[in-house]
Amino acid sequence: MTEERTPPTPIALIGVIVAVLFLALILGAEDPPEETIGSLIGLSIAALISWWVLKDAGTRGLSNKGAQGWAIFTFIIVILGLPAYLIARPKREVNQQETEVYSTAMIADKIREVAVLRSEGLVTDEQFESKKAELLEKI
Length: 139
Description:
By secondary structure, the protein is mainly alpha-helical. The chain contains six helices and no strands. The longest helix is centred in the middle third of the chain and has 26 residues, at 34-59. It starts with 9 loop residues before the first helix and ends with a helix. Mean pLDDT is 77; it is low at 1-7.
């Protein structure tokens, strides 16, 4: 039985490169300079932010290439990439069908409530029909 494997994302490759560089610098130097450690910390932060952008873009309905493009842009230029993504990112997708079902059910409940008020004599037939027409327009 063969199992299909998906190719690694660019972010995964970047993470591997950062990890290899980190190990090479730590193992290869007896006393690594502070600049090297700072650079590795910066690369790690950039990789984490890029990973978050990749996941967030995927949940917002962007294609894989679009999400990966934003993640790579954010990794390369964190200072500009993250704010640009936060401004340009699409709104979360809402399942339109679920919203309509919920809205229809909610409107039907409101019509039933007004019908009960009418049967109790608190609302006239004209008021009931007016409110019913108003609610049905929202569907």
